[in-house]
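Deliverable D5.2: sample structural annotation.
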Amino acid sequence: MKREEKNQQTRRRIMDCALEEFGQRGYRGSSVNNICAAGGVSKGIIYHYFHTKDELYLACVGECFQHLTQYLREYPIVQDNPVEKQLEHYFACRMDFFLSHPVYQPIFCEAATNPPANLQEGIRACRQGFDQFNAGILEGMLRQLPLRRGMARADVVEVLRQLQDFINAQYRMTPTGPEKFRARDESCRRALDILLYGIIERKE
């Protein structure tokens, strides 16, 4: 086996063990010692590939958001459908991803709702591509809807970002788990629906 291939396999084994550890215990409760034991490697080997626990955690977060974004790109929204159907499709695809890749769900949930204070900047960089993708999805939907006079798409996208921050804050103190993830996702979908269509039935 070539050295490069062996290095890649070792790095992958560390990543797989780290994803399990961070997913089960969260960043704060996780231990590099546990990752060493699970992977059958020494701390020296781990620190050869990842200089710190923080760097390893961010690698896991980055992989989660990268794979999620790629998955969503592979199942594009059909813009000929009504916007309501497009919203259903988008959130259904997100849920399908985490059902198919459950190891990423707690990583995503912690990064979105309760990120370690010292890693917020790093997590923001990890999810930049995902956030840009989401903004593009929303802007595509808004182009199909008649906006109120004086309302700019960029303003709507920014309001949604603020709503998501608010929703994430509401789930910050609740335990991580599938129920929390589903509730958060449903809250995001409902907030987007309200943002686009309002809360009152207008009479003609």
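Annotation notes: Residues 3-29 form the longest helix (27 residues). The chain is about 75% helix and 0% strand.
The annotation will be released with the project's public dataset once the embargo ends.
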